Amino acid sequence: MIRGPILGPLIFYLYSPPVAIKISNRNLIIFLFFVCILSRVSTSIFHIEDIDSLRFALSLHEFNVLKLQPHFPGYPVFIALAKCFHFITGSMGITFSIIGGLSLFALIIFTLKLFHIELNSISGLVCTSLLFLNPFFWLMSNRYMPDLMGLSISIASLYFLITSANRLRFLLIGFFLVGVLCGTRLSYVPLLTLPIIYHMYKNRNRHFLLFSFSSGCLLWFIPFVWIIGLDPLYTAAFKQTVGHFHDFGGTVITDGVWHHRIVRMMRSIWADGLGGFWLGRSWQTLLLTAPMAYFFYHSIINIKIKNLNQYQLLIAGSLFTYIVWVFFFQNIIHKSRHIMPLIGFSIILLNMGINRVRKKKRLRGNILTGLLLLGLFNVTFVLTSQHQKPNAISSIKDSIIANNISYPIVSIPLINYYLKKHGLHNEYFDIDDISDLDQVKLLEKDSLLLIGKFQNKFLDDYVLTHDTIYYHNPYMNRMWSEINMCSLKKK
User: Fold this and answer.
1) Residue 464 region, left (φ>0) first, then alpha (ψ -120 to 50), else beta?
2) What pLDDT is stored for residue 18 in this prediction?
3) 184: phi then psi, degrees, rounded to nearest 5
4) Least enclosed by CB within 10 Å: which of 42, 98, 404, 472?
């Protein structure tokens, strides 16, 4: 497996005399392109790890938002690309990993462009390594999900909207990409709200900008409507939008305890996103955490808001807008992936700290940078290795098949849906609340398989014959990281 092809050359450059790097930008870009794809393909996963991944996997065979394959907004740009690669490769795991590799490559290139960092420089190699080896980006590049692709498009769009603010051609590309982003990862659009408003107010060619944005939208919206139908699409959009804010949980409307949201958001960025130490996590992460905290400190203390130029203020404003959007209206309680745009900006901040320390104290900076990269490599290696093995829910599915369990399954609707879609033809009973448990007991089934912590409600009438807890590392995937499965027999 290609785990750290950038790490070796980078450490050599860090500890070699301060000479210029003579490798051309073009050759490095070509090398990076292939390394991104091959590294992600080498760590592909071939099991469905959660309910969201299942919906995207099913959409490769039948794209239908009415069946939640996937759920609205449908992500038609991502699905169309995935269908093309799946037709060629015939493998879901390879398909999503190729898209992940391409997305990571674009993310690295446009992040460097956005912050005016040359790839063929020490700063560029360090920043590229931090992005390339980031554990969360690596995991998401193998997940059956559009988040990393959406992130790469949003950063590319931000580059065209901000870097070349006075060049109409670049602005047209930026607005077109915003339209494409709406069909790839709609929830990342708030990151671009500020520059969009700025240009619509300041630019005299706003009608061209609107046309370019509309073109990006129509590219996917017309075939989307043609496949689904306008009225069914509206119904699905309305139902899912209301559900997102009111029913599914995780937003400030349904989970409005402020300190919980603040702590979860900090954990998502620091521990899930950057690989830092958190209570209950392996002490090995301290090898990464100590130098990372040191570099962040030296980066933050040197920031002076009053010295920021208009370009930097637009980036800061875009970041602040997205933070507000995520904190109030995204499911940061249960799903860390919504903070992905914040990880890239955090890495840029980290890279600034590394540059400052290395400039003032070269030896100390080089040693700490080496420790940081080794710690990052260790965390990412562990997580990606674990990610390739079946997680908790996939292991339960495999256990049911291996043991030929045919009696009724009692669980929450999403787990039952997951098992049904994997071809398990058991009888299912959905548990939404305590009253559903009473109804199941009244049926007096001879045997039951409980998935979830329900067994205490059945022990008056049933004997526990088997009890197992399935677990996977929550820093690999927070959804269903610990699931109890037990078998019951009627007394």
Assistant:
1) beta
2) 46
3) -115, -50
4) 404
Do 227 and 63 form a contact (C-beta atoms < 8 A)?
yes
Phi and psi (nearest 5°) for 172? Answer: -65, -40
Give me the mean pLDDT over the 46-65 stretch.
94
Q: Which residues contact 63 (CB under 8 A, 6 or more apart)?
A: 69, 74, 76, 79, 83, 227
Distance, C-alpha 468 to centroid of its chain? 30
Mean pLDDT of the chain: 90
Q: State the pairing for strand pair 447-451/462-471.
A: unpaired
Q: Tell me the one-letter amino acid at 20.
A: A
Residue-wise pLDDT for 346-356, tens only, equals: 999 999 999 99
Query: In the chain, pLDDT over 70 holds for what percent of residues?
Result: 94
Q: How confident is the model at residue 7 (pLDDT cuts 50, 70, 90)?
A: low
Scanning the structure block, which residue is given the tokens 């400030």?
Answer: 252
- Check whether the bond before 70 is cis (ω within 30° of 0): yes
Q: Quick one: three-class SS letters along the chain? A: CCCCCCHHHHHHHHHCCCCCCCCCHHHHHHHHHHHHHHHHHHCCCCCCCCHHHHHHHHHCCCCEHHHCECCCCCCHHHHHHHHHHHHHHCCHHHHHHHHHHHHHHHHHHHHHHHCCCCCCCHHHHHHHHHHHCCHHHHHHHHCCCCHHHHHHHHHHHHHHHHCCCCCHHHHHHHHHHHHHHHCCCHHHHHHHHHHHHHHHHHCCCHHHHHHHHHHHHHHHHHHHHHHHCHHHHHHHHHHHHHHHHHHCCCCCCCCCCHHHHHHHHHHHHHHHHCCCCCCCCCHHHHHHHHHHHHHHHHHHCCCCHHHCCHHHHHHHHHHHHHHHHHHHHCCCCCCHHHHHHHHHHHHHHHHHHHHHHHHHCHHHHHHHHHHHHHHHHHHHHHHHHHHCCCCHHHHHHHHHHHCCCCCCEEECHHHHHHHHHCCCCCCEEECCCHHHHHHHHHCCCCEEEEECCCHHHCCCCEEEEEEEEEECCCCCCCCCCEEEEEEEEEC
Q: Which of 118, 9, 94, 105 is nearest to 43 (CA)?
A: 94
Q: What is the CA radius of gyration of the chain?
A: 24
Q: How far is CA 181 from CA 107, 152, 168, 434, in A?
A: 14, 9, 20, 42
Render pLDDT for 424-454 as a digit per residue (tens, 0 to 9). Answer: 999 999 998 877 888 888 888 889 999 998 8
- Inter-residue contact 416 to 433 (CB < 8 Å): no
Q: What is the largest CA-CA distance in the chain?
A: 79
